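Quick log. Single chain, no ligands specified.
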Amino acid sequence: MRALLLITALVAAYLFAAHLSGGRLYDFGLGLGGEKATLQAQVSHFWEDVKFKDFAAAARYHSPETQAQVDIPYLIERLFLIKPEALEIISMEVMFVEIDSTGRRARVKQRVKVKDLMRQQVEQRELILYFHKPAEQWYMELESSLRGLDADPDKKH
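-> predicted structure:
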C-alpha cells in the first residue's frame, strides 16, 4: 500500500512539474503546460518546417490575412545572412516563453544551431520570435519584425 501511495505521489509530482515547466518536460500527451507549451510547440514545428524547406507550412504560423504575403525564404536569409538552400538547421532549443499581462502578446527565445553548407561553418544564434493572440489562436509576427519599416512622415527622424 505504501509503495502504491509513493508511486502515485511521484507521478502526481512529475505531472505538476510538467505543467509548471510550460512544456519543457514530457507530458505524455496530456496537454499540460498551458499557453507556454502551445507556443513552444508552435516554434518547434515552425523550425521543423524551415529545416525541411516547407516554406508554405512555415508561413501558416502567421495570421490568415498575412500568410499569402509572408516570404519565409527571404526572412530566413535576413535572419542568418545565408540563402535558405545553403542553410542546414541542426537543432533548436527553446530557452524561455514569456506571455505579457494581457495574455495577448508573447515572445519565445530560442537558440538555433545552423550550418552554412557553402563555408562549412557551424554557428548558434539566439532569436526571439514574437506572437500575438487576437482571438483564440497564437500567430507569429516574423514578417513584420524583419521587413524594413517606413518612417512616419509626421514624426521626426
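Strands lie at 87-99, 105-116, 121-132, 139-140.
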